[in-house]
Amino acid sequence: MSDLRGAGVLMSGFHTPDAGRVADPDRVVIDFDRDGTILSVTPPGAMGHDPAGKVDLSDCVAIPGLADLHVQAPRYPQLGMAPDVPLEGRLFHHTFPLAARDADTEFARKVYAAMIDDLLAAGTTAVVYFSTIHDAATCILGDLCLEKGQRALVGRVAMDHPDNPPLYRDADTAVAVAGTRAVIDHIRGYPGNAQGLVRPIITPRFIPACTDDLLAALGRLAAESGAAKHVAESDRENAHVRARHGTSDAETLDRFGLVTRHGVLAHGVFLGERDLAILRARGRGRPFARCRTPVSQALPSPCGWSSRRGGGGPRVRHLGRAPKARCGRRRAARRWQRGCSTRASRRGCRPWRAACRGPGAMP
């Protein structure tokens, strides 16, 4: 049974009603209203515990839905690609060209629908999404989350700095702010979203991608919607911010009003004691998507090899087909990861040949 709205179930599982305490209810009756909200949880022996007519899921284990605090939605077709390429090179040669394709709303819809389905199938019921600079594609992402029943904070990425590639940047600060406001209004205007299942969130890509005027404008918007952003992810990012502002990444974001209680910070690889003090001072309960390992070392390669240790990484699902790793040699797989520069690498992993068409190509 895929939809439990308006139903009652008999199930066992576990949850954490309080910090540090795990409860394991056994054969409880759970009733839902028509919106899917839990009305009651009745343990055996309590008044109202009547399994009759309930959906029997007692042979399953129920757990709370998982929450992913940092999903870059347009990169979904690139799962596992170029894991050994440094962050800046991956952004300019792989990520930005692919994200630019979201100007095609049908392409964006196909990517986002498959991504949300896969996340829900894996038990991820709440997500903080980075979208792209495209207003329409970001609205589609929010529409699909609401349609499929995934709780989400959806952010239209803003990046107007002239150092961004021309194919993927906001024309100016006014365009970025207007697009952000348009997405906020669209999501808040959803019919059937009275419970706030899908909400907007302010999303500057990161400081190097934004002008100071844009950071200041987004900081003012963040006071009402919260903000999701990268912080201190790479040493190059940290060096750029210090050269430009004379302060750390976290200190600079805070100065622009982008470190808020109702927000999410991603990565935080290079946070110092002063940065941590700022985060503590901005209020308790702020989510922090911590990733101490550089992303380039954490991603699996599409050919089933771990580029850093040579071990077997998990296979990755791509749109349109399931991957079948046929790499004859580890060397061929690593050549492919460096950009498919040789004929041997193109032959080495046949299902991924489409990726050789160029940066941002989608299998």
Terminal Cα separation, in Å?
Answer: 33 Å
State the strand order across the main sheet.
5-4-1-6
Query: Tell me, what is the CATH class of the largest domain?
Result: Alpha Beta
User: CATH homologous superfamily of the largest domain?
Assistant: Metal-dependent hydrolases
Largest sheet: 4 strands, mixed
Q: What is the CATH architecture annotation of the largest domain? A: Alpha-Beta Barrel
Portion in beta strands = 15-25%
Run of helices and strands: EEEEEEEHHEHEEHEEHEHHEHEHHH
What is the CATH topology descriptor of the largest domain? TIM Barrel
> How would you sum up the global shape?
globular
The helix/strand class is alpha/beta
| Number of helical segments with 4 or more residues | 11
Q: How many separate domains?
A: 3
What integer is the average pLDDT?
79
Q: How many beta-strand segments?
A: 15
Rg, nearest Å: 22 Å
Uncertain segments: 293-363
Helix content, binned percent: 25-40%
Please describe what this structure looks like.
By secondary structure, this protein is α/β, with parallel strands linked by helices. It folds into 3 domains: 8-62, no CATH class; 66-297, TIM Barrel (Alpha-Beta Barrel), CATH 3.20.20.140; 306-357, no CATH class. Helix content is 33%, strand content 19%. The protein has 11 helices and 15 strands. The strands form 5 sheets. Strands 5-4-1-6 form a 4-stranded mixed sheet, with no helix packed on it. A 4-stranded parallel sheet has the order 7-8-9-11. β2 (15-18) and β3 form a beta hairpin. 38% of the residues are buried. The model is unreliable at 293-363 (pLDDT under 50).
